[in-house]
Amino acid sequence: MDLLLIVLLMFAGSGLGALVGTAIPNAQVEAIALTSATGGIVGAVVAYAILALNKSNINRSRPTPRRSVLHTPRRSQSSSFRKRMARFTGKSEADVLADEQYESKMPFWAAVDAILRFPPKSAAMIRASLLEIRRTLRR
């Protein structure tokens, strides 16, 4: 249906453009073809605008589905990051986050200090950002 509207308005615009071209006194064939092509382009633009407005009105009138209480994720009793990381890596808890000197396998990238120019984000700021993303996605 959308394609039909686009093609129909392109032909209508092209026909109107050709009429305008023939109304020009002493118009050559090139001028008539140019006005016809311009009319076709204008017709296509009008068709796309009509379709975009129609779809935005349909989306506005459609109610957003509400999530039921059954589908909300539960907060689990999470253990500390150190314990979870130890389980993931298969190491003991004391070895997981030990402050040892890290030797990079990519010395060029380790020498770049672009990351050090900006202070790290706090946990509260990251949590607030993630909660805002969640609220936005649930709307």
Would you kindly provide a written description of the structure presented here, covering whatever features stand out?
Helices cover 64% and strands 0% of the residues. The protein is mainly α and 139 residues long. α1 (2-23) packs antiparallel against α2 (29-61).
Q: What would a concise description of this structure say?
A:
With 139 residues, the chain is mostly helical. It has helices at residues 2-23, 29-61, 81-89, 93-96, 107-111, 123-138.
Outline the secondary-structure elements.
Blueprint lengths: L1 H22 L5 H33 L19 H9 L3 H4 L10 H5 L11 H16 L1
Helix pairs in contact: 1-2
Report the average pLDDT across residues.
78
CA gyration radius, whole angstroms: 31 Å
- CA-to-CA gap between the ends? 30 Å
Give the overall silhouette: elongated
Largest sheet features: none
Keyphrases for this structure?
64% helix; 6 helices; elongated; mainly alpha; 139 residues
